[in-house]
Design a protein that fits this description.
Elements (H helix, E strand, L loop, with lengths): L3 H8 L17 E4 L2 E8 L1 E2 L2 E2 L9 H25 L7 E12 L7 H16 L6 E7 L8 E9 L2
Parallel strand pairs: 5-6
Antiparallel strand pairs: 1-2, 2-7, 3-4, 5-7
Length: 157
């Protein structure tokens, strides 16, 4: 049976990515009781980086980077579904997102960029999608991706 969260994905016109091979030697997630630690996901789709960095300080670049953050969120949700044994309705609350924006020193819009990921989690999980968060600028990311996001999620017990 399809979860309510996956039904919301469909209503929003969103889809989860096809499976992919991680770019490094790490687990896509680690469980500790009811807590899921999701490894950082870049803006990658079907093996290709969709948005490269650094993100420039222009309105157009910030809009594009928000889309990149949205793709990161969809990649996280794909791995979260695996961690939930296929049932995203098991999510109790999204505890935290960590957002990283590939940018020049002094870039002031990292929070606006990472809002792209935050908005996906809130749209899919409602109030349970609100989370604590960091949004920091960095000088590089894997594959020269413009954005990477990680997450910590609590499952229902």
């Amino acid at each position: 049976m399809t979860s309510q969260v996956e039904k919301r994905l469909e209503v929003l016109g969103l889809e989860l990515p096809p499976d992919w091979t991680p770019r490094g030697q790490f687990l896509p997630f680690r469980k500790d009781g009811a807590v899921i630690y999701l490894s950082g996901q870049i803006c990658e789709w079907d093996g290709e980086v969709t948005h490269v960095g650094p993100v420039l300080d222009t309105p157009e670049a910030i809009v594009a980077a928000r889309e990149a953050a949205k793709i990161c969120a969809l990649n996280l949700i794909y791995r979260l579904r695996e961690a939930c044994d296929g049932d995203l309705d098991r999510v109790d609350v999204v505890l935290r997102l960590g957002g990283f924006v590939n940018c020049q020193s002094g870039f002031p819009h990292s929070p606006a960029v990472i809002n792209g990921a935050t908005e996906v989690f809130i749209a899919l999980f409602g109030d349970r999608g609100w989370h604590a968060r960091t949004a920091v600028g960095v000088s590089g990311l894997p594959g020269n991706a413009s954005v990477e996001v990680d997450a910590i999620v609590l499952l229902k017990t």
